[in-house]
Design goal:
Blueprint (H helix, E strand, L loop, with lengths): L1 H27 L11 H23 L7 H11 L3 H25 L1 H9 L3 E6 L2 E6 L8 E4 L8 E6 L2 E4 L1 H4 L5 E3 L4 E2 L4 E2 L4 E7 L5 H9 L8 H28 L2 H10 L3 H20 L2 E3 L4 H7 L2 E4 L1 H5 E12 L5 H11 L6 H12 L7 E7 L3 E6 L2 E6 L1 H6 L6 H14 L2 E7 L2 E12 L3 H10 L3 E5 L4 H11 L3 E3 L4 H11 L6 E5 L5 H6 L2 E5 L5 H6 L2 E3 L6 H35 L5 H20 L9
Parallel strand pairs: 11-18, 11-20, 18-19, 20-21, 21-22
Antiparallel strand pairs: 1-2, 1-3, 3-9, 4-7, 4-9, 5-6, 5-8, 10-22, 12-17, 13-14, 14-15, 15-16, 16-17
């Protein structure tokens, strides 16, 4: 219903603008000369009256002067001296600018609307071995779905079988399709381009990537940015100054047309557009890259940030263990050790066991059948592979079974733990130590590039993590981050943020998990990793990176600075036009009609200047 009402209002504005334009052209060219009523009166009716209602409504709601009130003042002043064309033109310009702002706001959500248009209505679900088409709302977590070539993926999930390429541009902004195979995740709203595949549903309905984007986008409030409030304060001064100056000029010269021209010149159309158009164009640019900006003042606050605080796990790192080193003994090759260990872990539910299995499959290794699997929680597992009894786990686990790990191996493992924050699984075959496999959380692909770029932007970076100090320092060293705080509970992160923000620091928090939610909510501004981030973190943050591309953090700061700079440029343009042509009007060098034409040019110039923010650029 709300969307229908907005569409109806836009249509009404367009019709009013067209009819008003026709009336103004007829009036300007004197095509109906001799008639008792100037055709420009129709422009006053079709454009001026709706703007008058809008301005009065805002005045009643806010109970204070604002710059827009100059529009009806100038219009009535022009009517009082029978400058019908000028009066109609003032109303027409204001209506035209209002429509331009509506269109800019609509474009700011175009990325989300595109996702909504791509939403499939049905899904091909496999149940009891049969493929059945059901409404997307009926898909349950764990259901297996078939996605055909050319179809839009209906829910988030993981490919079970098949290989394909997926166009993720609508969500992530990636220009090239991404190859996908069994074990890879796929997002709702993206398009299967190559071949059919079977997937398992993991996030459905409101929890899916696309629906979360739509929900968050609905909270955008473009008209509540503090910069717009500042413009309104200046607008109040402009209203009073224009009225006083017009009164003085009329009192001194006795020429009402000069006073009217001054009021027309001071109409705040371009001035009020300076902030809203720049901000909304910035939001439109961000949405193109799968970034949701939640509230109107975020870009301004990002432009004032002096320090960026990062969570580690899931933000700068992938948040999942990966194999980082393999060490063997007794003539066993790395591949042999990995095959034996992964085969033994096939029934394991431990994160390290799953990580080992995933690594072995990525490497195309063929696993062997395992028997007599047993697990001791928190210690290790045992299994029989090809008649050989394997023990995998901690040194303490081996000791419980009467075996000892060589001192050199434990020292080597400890060194990896200190240098890379690694955790190791030791492997025994029939009681003989044959090596160990080290796991660690690894850096995201563009994490180093991001920290370097933030440094170039003169932004300090700090690591806030609940991880152990050795691991935190290792990651900080790899990223060249000078400040690092480890072993932090959620409330500790909050306290650390408050401590950093004492004085002149403005801190942006970047995180992904429930343990970051307090810091995300309390920070001067905040960014959440939306793809893997928890719902609590996403709801607490000002900005959401839908695809978890951490490199987009630096792009956001660059965008924010460009928006703030564009606002200043726009205000300079608007004020310059107001000042110089106001002087010209005061000395009688500008008629009310000419002042209207000048005003159109200044408003269009501001709109065009803001529109450049919607251009794409390389986010590196």
């Amino acid at each position: 219903m709300e969307k229908t009402n907005k569409t109806t209002k836009r249509t009404g504005k367009k019709l009013g603008i067209v009819l008003s334009a026709v009336a103004l052209v007829v009036s300007y060219l004197h095509l109906l000369e001799g008639t008792s009523v100037d055709p420009a009166v129709l422009a006053i009716v079709f454009s001026g009256l709706p703007m008058l209602v809008s301005v009065i409504g805002r005045l009643v709601r806010e109970r204070r002067l604002h710059a827009d009130i100059l529009v009806p003042i100038a219009m009535f002043a022009a009517m009082a001296v029978q400058a019908w064309f000028a009066a109609g033109m003032v109303g027409w310009i204001a209506m035209l600018v209002s429509l331009l702002e509506d269109n800019t706001a609509r474009h700011a959500q175009e990325g989300i609307e595109q996702l909504m248009r791509l939403t499939p209505q049905t899904a091909h679900v496999l149940r009891d071995g049969q493929q059945t088409d059901v409404p997307v709302e009926s898909v349950a977590v764990g259901d297996e779905l078939v996605v055909l070539a050319g179809e839009t993926i209906p829910v988030d999930g993981v490919i079970v079988s098949g290989e394909t390429s997926v166009d993720q541009s609508v969500i992530t902004g990636e220009p090239m399709p991404v190859d996908k195979a069994a074990g890879d995740g796929v997002l709702s709203g993206t398009i299967n381009q190559f071949a059919s595949f079977t997937m398992r549903a993991e996030h459905i309905g409101r929890d899916s990537t696309m629906q979360r984007m739509v929900q968050i986008a609905g909270t955008i409030e473009a008209d509540k940015a503090p910069m717009i409030g500042i413009a309104d304060k200046w607008g109040t001064i402009l209203v009073l100054a224009a009225i006083v100056l017009a009164a003085i000029v009329f009192a001194v010269t006795g020429e009402a047309s000069r006073a009217v021209a001054i009021l027309v010149c001071c109409c705040p159309v371009a001035f009020t557009m300076a902030t809203t158009t720049a901000f909304l164009a910035g939001v439109a640019n961000a949405s193109r890259y799968g970034i949701i900006i939640r509230s109107g003042d975020v870009l301004e606050r990002l432009g004032k940030v002096t320090k960026v605080a990062f969570d580690k796990t899931g933000t700068l790192t992938f948040g999942a263990p990966k194999v980082v080193a393999v060490r063997t003994e007794k003539g066993v090759s790395e591949e042999e050790l990995l095959v034996l260990a992964a085969s033994a872990e096939q029934q394991s539910e431990h994160p390290l066991g799953k990580a080992l299995l995933a690594y072995a499959r990525e490497q195309g290794m063929e696993l062997l059948p395992a028997e007599e699997f047993a697990m001791t929680a928190g210690m290790g597992i045992q299994a029989t592979v090809c008649g050989k009894k394997l023990l995998l786990g901690k040194p303490e686990y081996m000791k419980q079974h009467g075996f000892a790990i060589p001192y050199a191996a434990t020292m080597h493992s400890d060194t990896l733990g200190e240098d890379e924050g690694a955790t190791s699984i030791f492997v025994l075959r029939d009681g003989e130590f044959i090596g160990f496999i080290a796991f660690a959380d690894t850096l995201r692909l563009y994490a180093r590039t991001l920290i370097t770029r933030l440094g170039e932007l003169k932004l300090d970076t700090v690591l806030l993590t609940g991880d152990r100090e050795a691991t935190a320092k290792t990651i900080a060293y790899q990223l060249n981050m000078k400040q690092v705080y480890a072993n932090l509970l959620p409330e500790d992160k909050l306290d650390k943020l408050r401590e950093m923000e004492q004085g002149k620091e403005h801190v942006c928090m970047v995180g992904d998990g429930v343990n970051d939610s307090l810091a995300l909510k309390a920070a001067y501004t905040s960014i959440a990793m939306g793809g893997i981030g928890s719902d609590v973190a996403v709801e607490s943050a000002d900005v959401v990176l839908v695809d978890d591309e951490v490199r987009k953090v630096s792009y956001l700061f660059e965008l924010a600075r460009k928006v703030v700079k564009k606002v200043r440029n726009n205000i300079f343009i608007a004020m310059s036009f107001n000042f110089w042509f106001l002087l010209l009007a005061a000395v009688g060098g500008l008629s009310p009609s000419s002042a209207c034409l000048v005003h159109i040019f200044s408003a269009l110039l501001v709109a065009a200047n803001s529109a450049t923010l919607r251009m794409s650029w390389n986010i590196g």
